[in-house]
C-alpha cells in the first residue's frame, strides 16, 4: 500500500506527497578497497536533558555509538568529533573527550576504521598566543594518539584569531607535526562552514592561501596522511589534488560535487571525508562497492540522486547542515527523537525539512517509508501543521 503524507510547500499551501520505494543497497561482503571513505558522524542528544548553550552537551551514548556501528556495517570509516558532531556548535570539551574515548573503544571492539578531530577548543580564552595554541593542539593530539587513534588536525578558531600571517601557521603546524606519532589528516574548513575561519593559512585571497598551504604540506609530507578540503569549490580541489606531495591523499570534503571528485579523472582521484556520507551511508557504500569492481557507470548511477539531497542539506547557511543530518537519522529510525545539542533542531525551517524529506525519498534513502512518513507528520504537527 502506498504511503503518503501532507506537507507544506514553499510557494504556500500544501501537497499530499506519496512516497516511493526505498533503494536496494547491499551491504559489503568484504572491505572497501578502491577508496578510503570517511563518514563524519553526528551525535545523538539525550532528549530529556538540558542541551543549551549554558548547560553543555548531554548525549544519548547508546544511540550515538549505535550509529557509528551502523556506519561501520556499511564498510565506511568514521570521522569522529568533527564539525558534524557539533564541534564549535554545542559539543563541549569534556563530552568531546568522552566521545573520542568511547568511539575508539568501540572501533577496537568491532574492527572499525576511525579518525578523530584534534582542535584547540578546550581553551575558553578568546585569544591565545601561538605557544598556547600549540599546547592546546598537543593536548588533544595526546588524547587521541594515546588511545591508539589517528588524528585529524582541525582548523583552529584561536589560531585564525591570533595569526598575523602565513609564517604563524607554518610555525604552529610545523611544531605540531614534528611531535605526532603517526601521519595525520589536515583539515582546511572554509568559512562557509565556520565564518571565524576566514583568512585561514594567512590570507583571505584563496589563491594565496592555497600556496601557503601547499608549502606547509611539502615541508612536512612525511607526517601527513592526507588533507581534507571543505571549500565547496571543485576546481580548487582539483588544483590542490594534482599539486599534493606524492604520498599525501586528497580527502574530498565537497558535499556538492563528491561523485565526480571521488571517481577521479583516471590519473588523480579523491578519497572521501564527508558529512554527506552520514546522510547517505547505504548509497555511498554501494557506490564504492561498484567502484571496487571498476563499474564507474554504476557508481555514478547510484550517487547521482543523492546530490540534490546533499546540496539541499548543505545549502546556505551551510553551518546549519547538522540539523539536516540529524533529521535524516530521525526519519530512518536511528534515534527516537529530533532533538539536538544546543537546540539546533530549530536551525532549519519546517519547509526546508519537508523539502529534505522529499529529496531523501527520491534518492531511495528512506529505509522505512511508513516510519519516515509518521515522523515527518509528527515534526509538522509540533510546528502547527496538521494532517487534517
> Could you estimate the helical fraction of the residues in percent?
40-55%
Give the strand order of the largest sheet, numbering strands 1, 2, ... along the chain. 3-4-5-6-7-8-9-10
**Secondary structure category:** alpha/beta
Distance between the termini: 20 Å
Sheet with most strands: 8 strands, parallel, barrel
Classify the beta-strand content into a percent band.
Answer: 5-15%
User: CATH superfamily, please?
Assistant: Aldolase class I
Total count of strands: 10
CATH class: Alpha Beta
Report the mean per-residue pLDDT as an integer.
97
Low-confidence stretches: none
Series of secondary-structure elements, N-terminal to C-terminal: EEEHEHEHEHHEHEHEHEHHHHHHH
DSSP helical segment count: 15
CATH fold-type name: TIM Barrel
Radius of gyration: 20 Å
The CATH architecture assignment turns out to be Alpha-Beta Barrel
Domain count: the total is 1
Shape: globular
Kindly describe this structure.
The chain is α/β, with parallel strands linked by helices and 388 residues long. The protein has a single domain (34-348), classed as Aldolase class I (TIM Barrel, Alpha-Beta Barrel), CATH 3.20.20. Helices cover 43% and strands 12% of the residues. The protein has 15 helices and ten strands. The chain has helices at 61-73, 93-110, 130-146, 157-162, 166-177, 206-219, 234-243, 258-263, 276-279, 281-292, 296-303, 306-313, 321-331, 350-362, 369-382; strands at residues 4-8, 14-18, 37-40, 77-80, 114-118, 150-153, 184-189, 224-230, 249-252, 271-274. An eight-stranded parallel beta barrel has the order 3-4-5-6-7-8-9-10, surrounded by five helices. Strands 1-2 form a two-stranded antiparallel sheet. Helix 3 runs parallel beside helix 5. The longest helix has 18 residues, at 93-110. The model has no long low-confidence stretch (mean pLDDT 97).
